Amino acid sequence: IYVIDSADKKRFPETSEQLLELLADEKLTNVPLLIFANKQDLLNAATSSEITDGLALYTIRDRAWQIQGCSAYTQEGVK
């Protein structure tokens, strides 16, 4: 499980780099990836498409991955 701030699009390149470094760990080979896109209650929150592009998720081909929108504030998507 990887949690991102979906309202902070300017940090997507840094977040993508950190995620790809994490996924390079051989202990995580073939482990599915669930990305919680937090702060979906905010008007400037990125969509799943924007997150896919911003984090270059289309380059991840060696495992299943999914984006789940959520809001820790409203608890939407986390119950």
From TrEMBL:
Pfam families: Arf
A Gene Ontology molecular function term of the record: GTP binding
Residues noted as binding GTP in the record, renumbered to the chain: N38, K39, Q40, D41
InterPro entries: ARL2/3 (IPR044612), P-loop_NTPase (IPR027417), Small_GTPase_ARF/SAR (IPR006689)
Highest rank taxon of the organism: Eukaryota
Keyword terms of this UniProt record: GTP-binding, Lipoprotein, Myristate, Nucleotide-binding
Family: Belongs to the small GTPase superfamily. Arf family.
Protein name as annotated: ADP-ribosylation factor-like protein 3
Organism: Didymodactylos carnosus
Lineage: Eukaryota, Metazoa, Spiralia, Gnathifera, Rotifera
